[in-house]
Each structure stands twice: as structure tokens, then as C-alpha cells.
Amino acid sequence: MKNIIILPFLILPAISIAQNTSEAEQKWSGNPIFKGWYADPEAIVYDNTCWIYPTYSDAYEKQVFFDCFSSNDLVHWTKHERIIDTTEVRWAKRAMWAPSVIRKDGKYYFFFSANDVHEGEVGGIGVAVSNRPEGPYKDIIGKPLINKIVNGAQPIDQFIFLDDDGTYYLYYGGWGHCNVVRLNNDFTGLLPHSDGEIYKEVTPEKYVEGPFMFKRNGKYVFTWSEGGWTGPNYSVAYAIADSPLGPFRREGKILQQDTTIATGAGHHSLIRLSEDEYYIIYHRRPKGETHANHRETCIERLYFDADGKIKPVAITVEGVKQRPVGK
């Protein structure tokens, strides 16, 4: 492991974010759920709090840090600023985006993409760790965990998934290709699959980027983004499989634009708050907005039909009802 130079890290105070109405009046989250241009939201529940880790949506040269947001009721959100940036990740020069997070053995792990890497360049997927969900996070290995381009997949948009047997999988990939790898115990390296392969391609039809996996009723539900991220037709589709390695056969779209409300609805994550109560967190562009980086983070309920298929999600202005995250 390289020696890592840790620079002084400025911990800024959390900033409470209120919606337009008073606390007494607010019963719905509204969309967007917090102010600012934020995209690619990764949501997770730690104990009784929902945390959202988004990309700061700006030009690549300015996209060099991460903020995160926390809430215990899905309505009132607290902003935690600069939980990690390029002063800590020395190999990252620009374009840090699309976090994925998980808690393991009392520590919080933060995976991210950096540098919009191409063949022969330094960049790709990194991993950092903290003792707290709000950071500050420290780069673990001082270099990318995945740097090279394998099976045509740009090493971006990673998602970490813990299966019931204790295996940690990392799904990732841009440029229309998705790979899955197995992680070692401390997330500093990769393990081979049972057939000896390190990188296994699992790309479903029409996949572009932004994979997210969850398990429901013994089935693996694999979701991803389709279309171009800068345009109005960005959307989310899904597949269902019997194995974490697929095959993933596309079922159809579940989230897309409504031109009366917003466009470019995609790059999502999901949380489950009770037995079958799911929420999808995603980004979109306000109606009439065309700037590529003007994206906002939003939330909606997600439902299944009697056959276990995901019902199409209607994007809304209202968002979701206030409810305690821990109940």
C-alpha cells in the first residue's frame, strides 16, 4: 500500500435545510427535496436516518467535492458539506461523481468515480472510509481500486451490493457496458468469481450506466439508466434474475420524464423503510431547463404489482409524505 499524505481537513458545520413552508405545515417532501444542483443520488438508511450522497452537479473542473444530506422524516434535510474532496484524494483531479456507500464493521465506506478516465489515464473508481456517515472520509489505498477499461466498460457509476451469503459485489460501468466484480474483506482489492474471472460482464439490453441492485422475495432486481445523461430522455429500466450474475433480461422502463413537470429523470437509488415500502431517489431537470448540469434530487414512492413487477413511477412536484425513517 502506498504511503498516503493526509492533508488537514476542514470540517464545516451541518446546515439545516428547510422547505418553503413551516415545519408545522409541511407534510410532503416536495421535489426537489433540497436546494442546489445535485445528481446521481445514492440513498441509504443507517439506523433511523436516511442519508443521500449525490454528485455536486457542475462542470467537471468544479466537480471536485461531495456533500451529503440526512433526514429522519424524508422532509427536513440537513446538509453536511465537503465530506471528501480532491485535497484528500490526491489522484483525483476533476469530475468526482456517483457515490455508493455501505456500512461494514462499524465503519462507513464511500465509493466514487473520478477523472472521467479513458484508456491509459489515471482515474476510475476509488474508495474512502470514515468513522461517521457524514465523514470526513479518507482515501483508503491512495489510487483507484479499478482503473482499467474491461469489456468496454468505463470504470464509473459503481454500486456496492451485499448478498445474503456475505459476498460484496461491485456493479459498475459506463459507455453501455456493465461489469460485476467481487470485493475483498477490506475493500482494497478484487476477488475472482467461482470460475476464476475477475471482471464479469452482465450488461442488459439498452443499458447505458448507473447500475443499482436490490433483492426482493428471493429475486435479484437489477436497475440502470438509459439514454443520454445530458438530454431529456434519460430514464430508468430494470430486470429481474435468479442470480446476482444474471442473466438480466430487460423488463421495461420504470422512470422517465414528464414534460409538464421535468425532464431527464434518471440515475437513481432505492430505499426500503418497511416490509414492502420502497422509495426511489433520482435526479431530473426542471421544466424548461436545458443546461446539462442543472439537475435536482427528487423522491417518489415505488410500487410492485401482484406478479412482482415494478409499476411505472410518476414523477411529481409533491414528492412523498412525511414519515419517521425508523418506523
**Helix/sheet category:** mainly beta
Mean pLDDT over all positions: 93
Question: Total number of helical segments?
Answer: 0
Helix and strand succession?
Answer: EEEEEEEEEEEEEEEEEEEEE
Radius of gyration: 19 Å
Principal-axes geometry comes out as: globular
CATH arch. level architecture: 5 Propeller
The count of β-strands is: 21
Biggest sheet: strand arrangement = 1-5-4-3-2
Please indicate the count of domains. 1
CATH superfamily: Glycosyl hydrolase domain, family 43
Highlighted features:
5-stranded antiparallel beta sheet; disordered N terminus; Tachylectin-2, Chain A; globular; mainly beta; 327 residues; 0% helix; single chain
Plain-language structure description:
- The structure is a single chain.
- The strands form five sheets. Strands 1-5-4-3-2 form a five-stranded antiparallel β-sheet, with no helix packed on it. Strands 10, 11, 12, 13 and 14 form a five-stranded antiparallel β-sheet that branches. A four-stranded antiparallel β-sheet has the order 6-7-8-9, with no helix packed on it.
- The protein has no helices and 21 strands.
- Helix content is 0%, strand content 43%.
- The chain has one domain: Glycosyl hydrolase domain, family 43 (Tachylectin-2, Chain A, 5 Propeller).
- With 327 residues, the chain is mainly β.
- The protein is globular, with a radius of gyration of 19 Å.
